[in-house]
Amino acid sequence: MDNSVNNIAEINKALAKNYIHYDPSRTDYSVNSFELELIEQTGSSIWKDVFLACLGLGVPCIINAIHDYSSLPEDSKSFTADIFLNSLFGGLSIVLGIISLIVWQKSKTSFKKVIADIKNKPKYEMPNKS
User: Fold this and answer.
1) Where are the chain's structural domains?
2) What Cα–Cα distance (Å) separates residue 128 from each residue in 3, 125?
């Protein structure tokens, strides 16, 4: 009885097959270590975060300055320290945000260029096993 169990296990092991589901319309690309480092450098841009932080600081400061200026009495419409500081920080943040937005958009296009270069590599035909 013990011998037949071993034989069945050996038969099952011999008949076992491993399958991988592969889509023939899928294209796989090979990437070398230089290209991986380039993707990592262009993909990890801090400029988007700087843009969003500047936008989050600049817009409320500008809105606060406009509100403070419009709430002053008509006969004394002069800049106070609050209005000046809100306008200053808001304006500087908006300018820095616009600069970081431009740099971020340029880095996005260089990231797309790296991906396009990888996709345009010459195809290599895999040898058939005979």
Assistant:
1) 30-119
2) 40, 9
